[in-house]
Amino acid sequence: MKFSCEKETLLNLLNIASRAVTGKSSMPLLEGLLLAADADTLTITGYDLSMGIRTTAQVDVVEPGRIVLNSRLFCEIVRKLPEGEVTLSVSETNRASII
């Protein structure tokens, strides 16, 4: 999976979807956000077993795919990035790189 978009676009999607994610859970998956890149659309989904929020935006998708990333950590990293374009790529071993 690999996509690029403006930092502001990604941060807006994250802020919306992360409202549905629980802070601490006995199920670590519920602390994450599902990022799905298909064709030219990025969909970010947050879910806590009682409520789900899904947001989408047009982005430049180089390689489609899906991954779940820890909501708090991912939002924190994106906030600290400089303004401009952000590229997220996921290797075959599910290692995410944010540039």
Topology, element by element:
Elements lengths: L1 E5 H11 L14 E7 L2 E7 L4 E7 L1 E4 L1 E6 H10 L4 E6 L5 E3 L1
Antiparallel strand pairs: 1-5, 1-7, 2-3, 2-6, 3-4, 7-8
Helix pairs in contact: 1-2
Please give a structural write-up:
There is one protein chain. This protein is α+β, with helices and mostly antiparallel strands and 99 residues long. The chain is built from two helices and eight strands, in the order βαβββββαββ. The longest helix has 11 residues, at 7-17. The protein is globular and about 35 Å long.
Keywords:
99 residues; alpha+beta; 4-stranded antiparallel beta sheet; 2 helices; 8 strands; globular
Query: How would you classify the quaternary structure?
Result: single chain
| Helix and strand run | EHEEEEEHEE
- Contiguous low-pLDDT stretches (5 residues minimum) are none
What order do the strands of the largest sheet run in, or round the barrel if closed?
A: 5-1-7-8
| Mean pLDDT reading | 93
Q: What would a concise description of this structure say?
A:
With 99 residues, the chain is of the alpha+beta class. 21% of the residues lie in helices and 45% in strands.
